[in-house]
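[Q] Does anyone have a clean structure-token version of this?
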Amino acid sequence: MKATIIYDNTAWDQRLTPDWGFACLVEAHGRSILFDTGARGDVLLANMAALAISPADIEAVVISHDHWDHTGGLDAFLSRQPANIYIPASCRTMSDRAVVIGDMTKIFDNIYSTGELRNIEQSLTIKTDKGIVVIAGCSHSGVDTILKSAAAIGPVYALIGGLHGFSNFGALEDLSMVCPTHCTQHIREIKDRYPEKYMEGGAGRMIEM
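[A] Here you go.
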């Protein structure tokens, strides 16, 4: 699989515009999914263009939670590609193509939503040969909660995305890779504790597994 961070507070690829928010393209098992849409549609689409990512090639959108910095680019994206949208139950209905997620749900073969956790947020889980890869928006539901949910599918290999104020660093012990992005407050601490697991994020960062 390949995860491409399209929208983040920092830019890995200097051609891209950094901005507060998060979006990630997940390509796995023959599917192409946009996870979150950042805060601004113009930044989202411009960053996609710089990365030669066509909206027309994306089959579905998964929204982690109903916060502006994860949903702000959705209308602009849908104007280019009216894809199905998978939203947690607490999220306002954003489109007549919205699929509301409550419990853990298979979106495509080997690709699942954790389901809405703690009534606020869902994460995306992808089965790979190395284990489960988790894509998180802000982890408002708690990193421990997300990893426990993902582990119901299989051993968790990697965690990519926003970890907010997460500080229970021992929860990352069994992971092989962690890429903290967006709202993560303790990136330096994660990097210092797990230099062999840590991967820097930023818009334009591509992670292949």
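[Q] Thanks! Anything notable?
[A] The two ends are 5 Å apart (CA to CA).
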